[in-house]
Amino acid sequence: MRVVNELTATQTPRGSHGTFDVERIREDFPVLKQQVHGKPLVYLDNAATSQKPQVVIDTITQYYLTVNSNVHRGVHFLSEQATQAYEGARDKVRRFLNAPHTREIIFVRGSTEGINLVAQSYGRTFLKEGDEIIISAMEHHSNIVPWQILCEQIGARLRVIPINDNGEVLLDEYKKLLGERTKLVSVVHVSNVLGTINPVKPIIEMAHSRGVPVLLDGAQAAPHLPVDVQDLDCDFYVFSGHKLFGPTGIGVLYGKAHLLETMPPYQGGGDMIRAVTFEKTLYNVPPYKFEAGTPHIEGVIGLGAAIDYLSGIELERIAAYERELLVYATEVLSSIPGLRMIGTAKEKASVLSFVLDHVHAHDIGTILDQEGVAIRAGHHCAMPLMQRFGVPATARASLAFYNTRTEIGMLVRAIYKVKELFD
Amino acid sequence: MSDLRELYQEIILDHYKRPRNFRKLEGAKGEAEGYNPLCGDKVTVYLELEDDRVRDISFQGSGCAISTASASVMTEYVKGKTRAQAEALFERFHDLVTGKLQTTPDAPELGKLAVFSGVSEYPVRVKCATLAWHTLRAALEGGEEAISTE
Question: Where does the pLDDT of residue B30 fall: very low under 50, low under 70, confident under 90, or very high at 90 and above?
């Protein structure tokens, strides 16, 4: 499509050649150039949501300035342009996940809706009373509650893979849970609290050896690691656009074509039908079968721009830079007396959860904020995990590739201010 | 740091580190549980009433400095008050932490509770400061349901 494609194509992301130039990358993110409470903003809440590069903002603006129209409907010029941009973004997502077919890419509101879709469409059709669904002890509420709702509806049972004190799943225990009754496994790829990168390949292999499909919650993985759904061989994969430097309200469900074809629609409405009479409706094919109503067009196009931007930097280089930053941050945070890291898995993405002796996470969050440092404090929508570690809440600094060592230094200084106030 | 000292006044830090009346009240006549799902703070308020008057009051739970100190100061303050007085005090306190009272001399009855005036500058912390009070109200009313700030 004319304007939108030109725009995303002409703005080459920084640092795409040679060394990883974080200062140049920061230039692409307008929101980072501000002060908070009179201090430079140090944004370390990327696991909650990420900031947006200028090119994503511009692409959305350009869409409304020059293209805005409904997709899949009009015969007119703008509608055709909008449809091309929308379907073009679907193909960008397909390449991003290395999925075989664009019909396997369904646009949803976010990871949460993707999981709910699978629970209600796949789960209610293919699972029955007495069947079991396996999740892990480190799931976000979004990968617990949809299954609990399903279990209540059909009389199925939820089983939970335990984890060790470092925050790693116990594969032996998983093996024991896998049985005749297991009909679905749904686990998080990267934990939003612990940062653990789960051994998803063996998890999937073990499930597949029993013919059990696997869903991966990739909300925290997609922004940090290259994801290849064919290499992983997962049956479903979900992620959210807003954690991937794209807009809020848009996410993706990847599903293997042969599964999507057998699944009934999740919602009814326009666009998901082939023909409607009052007696009977013929449904459209995937992915449209699962996209009822006018979709989040600007969100999809904005997500496409974010994927283009990331591809320009390359996720491998992002992962390498973040790994180095994580090692540094872990080292300096661990050296603070009275600070305990929660989540010390060998394989980790750039999430640092911690607790401080005698100081509640909520107070840490408020004091850090006064120093311009934005972190998350609370249970991170993972209350069962908080119980597992015996803490009511943690403070969590989560890094993106635009964060720097200097910012880690500012985080550490701010933590010392907390200690000064409370000691 | 000066701004933060407005919020984390010495009295608040003192009550956080050494909360008063922090125990279970054996044979309590009134009891209620409060919960803030946003941050996981929990508090249980125990009451012993004599006619219409709070003869004894205590609390237990876990929470941030603001919520723990608020519960602690509250127990000191409410002891000996009538239901109506406690209720009125909560209303004034709520006005204080939500910034509806311009100056604390507007409400001399708040006394030491005025140290929480800094909370009004931090809207997300209002629930921390009022959790114990909401729970007290529930205990006075004798409700069965746990109180949630959400």
Answer: confident
Q: What rounded mean pLDDT belongs to chain A? A: 94
Task: Show residues of chain A in contact with B38, CB under 8 Å.
Answer: 378
- Asked if B148 is an interface residue toward chain A (Cβ–Cβ < 8 A), one would say no
Residue of A nearest to B13 (CA): A422
Touching check for B123 and chain A: CB below 8 Å?
A: no
pLDDT confidence of A110, banded at 50, 70, 90?
Answer: very high
Q: Do B40 and A370 touch (CB under 8 A)?
A: no
Q: What is the pLDDT of residues A362-377, one digit of tens each?
A: 999 999 999 999 999 9
Residues A261 and A144 grouped into a single domain? yes
Query: How close does chain A come to B143, measured CA to CA in Å?
Result: 25
- Residue A18 in this model has a pLDDT that exceeds 60: no
Phi, psi of A284 (to 5 degrees): -75, 170
Burial of A162 (0-12, 13-18, 19+ CB in 10 A): middle
Could you give the CA distance from residue A229 to residue B70 in angstroms, rounded to a whole number? 51
Domain edge (last residue) among A273, A289, A311: A311
Q: Which two tokens stand for residue A190?
A: 């990267």
Residues A198 and A113 in one domain: yes
Residue A27 lies in a domain: no
Which of A311, A331, A349 terminates a domain? The answer is A311
> Do A307 and A320 fall within a single domain?
no
A299 and A319 fall within a common domain: no
Structural domain boundaries, residue A322:
39-52+314-418
How many residues does the structure list for chain B?
A: 150
DSSP annotation of A359: B
> Which residue is it, tokens 């969100």?
A299
- Partners of residue A367 in chain B, C-beta under 8 Å: 4, 8
Which residues on chain B are in Cβ contact (under 8 Å) with A420? 1
Summarize chain A as % helix, strand, coil (round to 5). Answer: 45, 20, 35
The pLDDT score that the predictor gives to residue A273 is: 86
Q: What is the pLDDT of residue A15?
A: 46
Closest residue in chain B to residue A417, using alpha carbons only: B1
A28 in any annotated domain: no
Are residues A115 and A123 in contact, defined by beta-carbon separation less than 8 angstroms?
Answer: no
- Helix (DSSP H) and strand (DSSP E) numbers for chain B: 5, 4
Average of per-residue pLDDT across A97-105? 98
For chain A, how many structural domains are there in total?
2
* A272 in any annotated domain: yes
Q: What is the CATH number of the domain that holds A197?
A: 3.40.640.10
Domains of chain B and any CATH numbers: 2-148 (3.90.1010.10)
- A407 and A270 co-located in one domain: no
Residues of chain A whose beta carbon is less than 8 angstroms from a beta carbon of chain B are 37, 358-363, 366-367, 370, 377-379, 383, 386, 392-393, 417, 420-422
| B81 Cα to chain A: minimum distance (Å) | 31
Using the predicted structure, report yes or no on whether residue B144 has a pLDDT greater than 60. no
As beta bridge partners, residue B57 has B47
Cross-chain CB nearest to B65 (options A360, A393, A417): A360
In terms of domains, do A305 and A324 share one?
Answer: no
